[in-house]
Every structure is written in C-alpha cells, then in structure tokens.
Amino acid sequence: MRRDARLSRMLHVLIHMDRHDGPATSEVIARMLATNPVVVRRTMAGLRDQGFVRSEKGHGGGWTLARDLREITLLDVYRAVGRPPVFVLGPAIDHPGCLVEQAVNAAVDGALAEAEALLLARFGAVTLADLARDFDRRFAEAKGRRPPAAG
C-alpha cells in the first residue's frame, strides 16, 4: 500500500518557505516535490484555510507564510492536509458475524486508537520551529559549523 506523504511534504515546504525570501509559486513548490502545481494548490488550500499560509495572484505572487513557525504544530498541519490515516493496519470485515473476528477487531481497534492518540498528542507538542532548529543543527554539522542561536 502506498504511503500518504502529504504531511511530510507540506512540513518540508513550510520550512523552505520560512527560509525563502518572497513568495514561492505553486510551480516552484511542485518542482521541489516532483508533482503537479495543481496538486500543490489543492494541498496548500487546506493550509491557507487554516491561516498558516496566504496566496497572492499575479506577477510576483505565490505562497507565503501567514504565521510564525512557533505557532504551527505538526498536528495543525496534519489536520490541514485532511487528517490522513496514520496507520495502514485495520480490522478485517470479511465475516462481521464471526465472534472471533469481532474479538480480534475489538483488540486491534482499541490498540490502534490508543496508538493514534499518543501519536497525535506528540504531533501537538512539536512545532515547525522545532523542526527548523533541527534542520539548522544538521546543516551546521554538515558544514562543520555551530548552529545559529535559537530564536
């Protein structure tokens, strides 16, 4: 089954947007993600609707951040991209009347619900500024320098 990478891809885009001077067009973002600009516009619309980005049409237009990275969590972006399923596992529905299947599904559903709640709580505790700081640290280490002071 194919993984849903919308969350990771949009987190990537938002960090780049923070580091970029001026608006980023859908075409530029699409090239970065190796996708179609229409896909970018559709996905970015969810972020715009939540107030994380804004768009300007016309010459010199494009997408810009509308909020500071410290104000946006992974959970915010997860919700803005449509709350994709976090697990590919799920209950079987081959024989809904089977008591064994019911027992198995109850255990699987319960475990998945607990795991999803923990994951989403963690998403809510991590800001995009946290990701940007980690990027800065990695970049500095790759270049043999010290990371910039946190801001």
What does this structure look like?
It is built from six helices and two strands, in the order αααββααα. 56% of the residues lie in helices and 5% in strands. It has one domain (6-143): Orthogonal Bundle (Arc Repressor Mutant, subunit A). It has a two-stranded antiparallel ribbon with strand order 1-2. The radius of gyration is 19 Å and the shape is globular. The model has no long low-confidence stretch (mean pLDDT 92). The longest helix has 27 residues, at 99-125. Strand 1 and strand 2 form a beta hairpin. It has 151 residues and is mainly α.
Looking at this protein, list some descriptive labels.
151 residues, two-stranded antiparallel ribbon, 56% helix
Mind sketching the topology for me?
Elements: H1 6-19, H2 26-33, H3 37-49, E1 53-56, E2 62-65, H4 74-80, H5 99-125, H6 128-143
Antiparallel strand pairs: 1-2
Helix pairs in contact: 2-3, 4-5
Number of strands: 2
Oligomer: single chain
**Number of helical runs?**
6
| Biggest sheet strand line-up | 1-2
The biggest sheet, with number of strands, parallel, antiparallel or mixed sense and barrel status, is:
2 strands, antiparallel
CATH topology: Arc Repressor Mutant, subunit A
Mean pLDDT level: 92
Any low-confidence stretches, pLDDT <50, length ≥5? Answer: none
Order of helices and strands: HHHEEHHH
Question: Distance between termini?
Answer: 40 Å
Summing up helix and strand content along with how strands pair, one would put the structural category as mainly alpha
Based on Cα principal axes, name the global outline.
globular
Report the portion of residues in β strands.
Answer: 5-15%
Indicate the percent of residues in helices: 55-70%
